[in-house]
């Protein structure tokens, strides 16, 4: 697509004359066409909540950019969200990429789920349309040589590396109480790939994997699985699954009074403010490695307030979506164009730092921002705190967690 | 394998089976007796669960006390829905009903998504984490309550179908619609009442489920396939079938999970579905048509 306004030569002459006369040099630029950004999220189906959150974050960024005068390098061109719903299904995600392509989107932002992002980015690659991954942690997304795909947040490889660095440090500080681990994961791409990575790294920090248990999505009852956990007596339980099952599993673990040093998740789908609010006893002491904002950044705090003021929860989908859009907008500014090739080139050399994530300036290698990192979080009865790394920590980790009385 | 674990799996299977029975009991009435394939069953369960959720969070009404509100409310909803929408637009044709209930489910689910958002919500009441020691096992009290309630509910409904005039009328309509009309039974009313009762059982199921489970706009999908399996297995229209079917499905899932893992274990439910359709299409307790 082209973003040059279709204006006849005569009109240009007239406008130039007028601008000279009226002293309005911005007249031509003010007519800049909006830049369509295709937002593809699962806003219905099993992942609807997360998808809706992601969409909200992206829209907040778009509104903010437009309110601040649009893309300045393009004469204040506005960003326009073109909405897609992947219905939590990969094939629908691909169909939405095709549909939005017909609507001439300049870029895509999405997809929340790795399983959807994998085929969707591939479909977008045919048109060389930039695709900003907001959430979608499978490393396969950025390791297939697709030039159009960029991810600001860390992939699961990096999250797992960070998780083990954090876990090792927290465990060491507690005198090395944890020695064995039991892995529980959901059996689609996200849970399986994360668990595989975890399994490979666990021995590196002096821990032993006792067993790996997988479950389907949805799973209606975790009683048997928790009994297995109880009989295996691991020191740590590490979970990797989506929101509904996370909540159900955490609750069953709590009800069955499973004493472990720590319940720990990497990218735990249900670890959020909702859990803390509705199930404070279950949530307390749960730990999660996840995408999180820099709690010391005033802009992040302001945005959290704004989201909460409208009755929402400031979950990672919101600010990952928000920052993905902002990163894309920064690339357009620097490319001084929304043309796909130019934006992709600008993203490849991006050093954007106006985000509020605990990352440094962006540096994309094969589409992955190498500075992206996850942090260790722990729930208290009332809030969620960053407990590692120390430079972002708002509280000290409670580890090992107190035993059931 | 350790005997304790087998015993635990059996108990867990029976308890979750009780929940399946609860959800399936209304379906067996609607699907089995009236031969309506109620695609809206899952979304109605979801509505009822949100009802219980909001009764507690907005009005402070305990989920079990909410039975007094939800059961009549869901009956009224079912009755009016049948009279106002399903009955009116179906012209008495089963295939129309199928499409209408499918349409209703899509509509309701998406409205729920719009108003309630796709979030997973849970409730916390004083007894939600109460555990009862059964030998070496800790069993959740609300699960035991839901199990007992499911058995009582099916027993009462089964007896009511056998003994009461309305129950007899429902069975008469199910067997021979024209004949029922000829002896003076108001067939349309019987349909609406049955649909109402079917939904009322979902009202009860929602009250008993909420202390154990979570609710989100797509919660219906989690239960509806299982509920259909239970109905097909137990025999359409049989409450005893719903109980036995629910328990068999619960046990299959539990032991499947134990021996094959929670991931592959769920294959058992689909296997039962296929086997029962091949070997005994009328179900364990269903009368052949």
Characterise the protein shown here.
- The complex is a heterodimer of chains A (405) and B (289).
- Chain A has helices at residues 9-22, 48-67, 90-102, 114-125, 156-173, 189-202, 223-232, 243-255, 273-278, 280-283, 298-309, 316-335, 340-348; strands spanning 35-41, 79-85, 107-110, 131-133, 149-151, 180-186, 208-215, 236-240, 262-266, 287-290, 364-365, 368-369, 375-379, 384-388.
- Chain A is an alpha/beta fold.
- Chain A folds into two domains: 32-154 and 297-369, Response regulator (Rossmann fold), CATH 3.40.50; 157-290 and 375-392, Rossmann fold.
- Chain A is elongated and about 85 Å long.
- By secondary structure, chain B is mostly helical.
- Chain B is globular and about 60 Å long.
- The model of chain B has no long low-confidence stretch (mean pLDDT 90).
- Chain A binds chain B through residues 43-52, 187, 213-216, 218-225, 227-228, 231, 243-244, 247-248, 251, 254-257, 270, 274, 278-281, 313, and chain B through 2, 5, 8-9, 12, 15-16, 19, 109-110, 113, 117-124, 129, 131, 138, 140, 213-214, 216-218, 221-223, 226, 253-254, 257-258, 261-263, 266.
Sequence stretches where pLDDT stays below 50 over 5 or more residues of chain A = 1-5, 19-30
Helix content of chain B: over 70%
Shape of chain A: elongated
Task: Work out the number of β strands of chain A.
Answer: 14
Give the topology string of chain A: H per helix, E per strand: HEHEHEHEEHEHEHEHEHHEHHHEEEE
Which class best fits the helix and strand makeup of chain B?
Answer: mainly alpha
Supply the CATH superfamily name of the largest domain in chain A: Response regulator
Largest sheet of chain B: 2 strands, antiparallel
Spatial separation of the terminal alpha carbons of chain A: 65 Å
Which percent band covers the strand fraction of chain B?
A: under 5%
Which pair of chains has the greatest number of interface residues, and how are they split between the two chains?
A-B, 42 and 40 residues
- What's the average pLDDT of chain B? 90
Note the overall shape of chain B.
globular
Order of helices and strands of chain B: HHHHEEHHHHHHH
**Number of DSSP-assigned strands of chain B:** 2
Biggest pleated sheet of chain A: 7 strands, mixed
Number of helices of chain B: 11
Please tell me the total number of domains of chain A: 2
Strand residues, percent of chain A: 15-25%
